[in-house]
Design brief:
single chain; mainly alpha; 3 domains; 10 helices
C-alpha cells in the first residue's frame, strides 16, 4: 500500500506500478516543475522591468522636482544666463551663482560705479574751472601784448593771411559748386527739351502720315464721286434726251389721236349709214398714211418707249419708272452735296498740312539754333 503522503505528492494510486512507471511519473513532474519555474521566472522578469521603469520615472521626477525646488529656493540660473547672454563679463563672473548673491553683487557694483561717476564729474568740474582760469590768463596776456607791445605778432599775421586765403578758397569753391549746379540744371532742361521735341517730331510725323492717308482717301473718294457723278450726268442727259424725244413723240401722237377723234366725230353719221365700213382703217382716204398713223401704232410705240425706260431704270413695272427717276435725281443731288462737303474738307486738310509743314520747319530751325548754341 502506498502511503497517503506519497499518493498526495506523486499522484501514485496503484501498488502495481513498476520503477519505469515511477520514473516516467517523476519525469512528468519534473517537466511540470520546470514549466512552472520558467513561467514564474518570466513573470519575475516582467515585474522587474516594470519596477525598473517605474524607478527610472521616479528618479526623473525627483530630479525635476529638485531642480524646481532649487529654482524656487536659490533662483533660476538659466534665466540669469539668458539675461547675461549679451554681457560676457557678467556671464563669466556670475555663472552658476545664486540669484540673491548676483543681485547683491550687481547692486554693489552699481553703487561703486555711481561713486566713480560722481568722482569723475567732480574732477571734470574742477578741470573746467581751471580751464576758465587759464583762458582768462591767456586773454589778459594777449591784451597786454597787443596794447603794450603794439601791432600784431608774426604768428597772428600769418594766421590772418591763412584765414584770408582759406576764405577766398571757400568763396571760389562755393562759386564753382553754384556754377556746377546751374550747368547741371541747364543740362537737365536741355535733355527734357530734346526728349519733348523728339516726341513732338514723332507726333508730327505720325500726324503727317495720317493726314496724307486722309488726303489720299479723300482724293480717291472725290475721284470716285466725280466718276460716279459723270456717269450719272451722262445717264441723266441720255435719259433726258430720250424722255424729250418720247415727249415730242407723245405730243405728236396726241395730235394725231385728237385729229383722228375729230375725224371720227365728223364722220360718225357716215359710219352709221354704211354697214360695210367696220374697220377704222377704211375711213381714211389714203390707206398707207392711215396705217402709219393709226392708234395701234402709237400705242405700240409708247409701249416700246416704256420698255426701254424700264430696262434703263431696272424696275419691275411701268409704274415704278417715275419713282426710280425721282430717286436718281435725289441721289444725284445728294452726291453733289457730298462732293461739295468733301471738297471743303479736302481744302481744310490741305491747309492743316501746310500749317503742320510750317510748324515742322520752324521746330527744326529752332532745334538747329539751340544745337548750334
Amino acid at each position: 500500500m502506498l502511503s497517503a503522503a506519497k499518493v498526495r505528492i506523486h499522484g501514485m494510486q496503484d501498488e502495481n506500478w513498476i520503477i519505469k512507471d515511477k520514473i516516467n511519473q517523476y519525469r512528468g513532474l519534473i517537466k511540470l516543475y520546470e514549466r512552472d519555474q520558467k513561467i514564474h521566472e518570466g513573470d519575475l522578469a516582467k515585474q522587474k522591468k516594470r519596477y525598473s521603469r517605474d524607478i527610472r520615472q521616479l528618479r526623473r521626477d525627483i530630479t525635476s522636482k529638485r531642480e524646481e525646488l532649487e529654482v524656487a529656493v536659490y533662483g533660476d540660473k538659466q534665466f540669469l544666463r539668458n539675461a547675461f547672454q549679451e554681457h560676457r563679463r557678467l556671464q563669466l563672473t556670475y555663472m552658476n551663482s545664486q540669484a540673491d548673491k548676483v543681485l547683491e553683487s550687481i547692486h554693489q557694483e552699481n553703487f561703486n560705479k555711481r561713486k566713480q561717476l560722481d568722482r569723475i564729474r567732480y574732477t571734470k568740474k574742477r578741470k573746467m574751472e581751471e580751464f576758465r582760469q587759464i583762458q582768462l590768463q591767456s586773454s589778459e596776456l594777449r591784451d597786454r601784448l597787443l596794447y603794450e607791445v603794439g601791432g600784431k605778432l608774426p604768428a597772428e599775421k600769418k594766421e590772418q593771411a591763412v584765414a584770408n586765403y582759406v576764405q577766398r578758397a571757400n568763396i571760389k569753391k562755393n562759386a564753382a559748386l553754384a556754377i556746377k549746379v546751374m550747368y547741371k540744371k541747364i543740362l537737365d532742361i536741355l535733355k527734357k527739351d530734346s526728349s519733348y521735341f523728339t516726341v513732338v517730331l514723332e507726333a508730327l510725323k505720325l500726324d503727317c502720315r495720317a493726314q496724307g492717308k486722309c488726303l489720299m482717301g479723300a482724293t480717291e473718294m472725290g475721284q470716285l464721286a466725280m466718276e460716279y457723278l459723270d456717269d450719272r450726268k451722262f445717264e441723266f442727259s441720255k435719259l433726258e434726251k430720250e424722255i424729250k424725244t418720247n415727249m415730242k413723240e407723245r405730243e405728236r401722237t396726241l395730235k394725231l389721236v385728237r385729229r383722228e377723234v375729230a375725224f371720227l366725230t365728223d364722220s360718225f353719221p357716215n359710219l352709221i349709214r354704211k354697214e360695210e365700213a367696220t374697220n377704222l382703217d377704211d375711213l381714211y382716204e389714203d390707206p398707207d398714211a392711215v396705217s402709219q398713223h393709226s392708234v395701234h401704232w402709237e400705242v405700240e410705240e409708247v409701249m416700246r418707249i416704256c420698255k426701254r425706260l424700264q430696262k434703263a431704270t431696272l424696275v419691275p413695272s411701268f409704274d415704278k419708272i417715275l419713282v426710280r427717276l425721282k430717286e436718281q435725281r435725289y441721289q444725284t443731288e445728294r452726291l453733289m452735296t457730298q462732293l461739295t462737303l468733301n471738297s471743303m474738307k479736302r481744302d481744310a486738310l490741305i491747309e492743316d498740312r501746310k500749317h503742320a509743314i510750317l510748324m515742322l520747319d520752324s521746330l527744326k530751325n529752332v532745334g538747329q539754333e539751340r544745337t548750334a548754341q
